[in-house]
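Batch manifest, entry 17 of 40.
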Amino acid sequence: MSGQCCDHEASEAQLRDTAYRRVLWAALAINFIMFAIEIGAGLAAGSVALQADALDFLGDTATYAISLFVIGMSLRARALAALAKGGAMALLGFWVAGATVWHVAYGGAPEAFMMGAVGLAALTANAAVFVLLWRYRSGDSNMRSVWLCSRNDVIGNCAVLLAALGVFGTGTAWPDIAVAAVMSTLALQGAWAVFRQALGELRESRLSGSAQERTA
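Output type: structure tokens
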């Protein structure tokens, strides 16, 4: 009886991993396509918020690729992968912060119409990923890091649209700069959350390994 239960649990885990893998592949494709579109539009429009969002798409593409690689691995392996992704999120946050400071000093007003059009396309893409990942939002640190990326993306896209309206209404770069600063803060906040959970899981895996060694 216990063997049948174990087999059933293993089968459920395999099905869950297979379904999660398909979701991650879809999310990876969506994010890479949007990165290519948005980085070109951000540079053409002179928008630091669009460029920051484009780099976020690229970072998410790498996040999904790493998540695909570690599916089915040990808790320690998944936690280490989450630490790497947290580091990438932190680097993105610091880069956006630096770009924001640069635009305060040297940047001009971006092209509001292009910001709005591309921001709406990005919001649609991220909303689709958000829906796909909803059921996996409360998993381990690896799954949580993916969920946090998706959540931050949707918030960031809404902020880009507000920035486009602000730039159109004021004719200045300040709404664009303000949104980039918010996106930087979100990236750093998400990185801290992932670091904290991943480090806790690493401690858990070490304690579990020590306990197994004592009972062996």
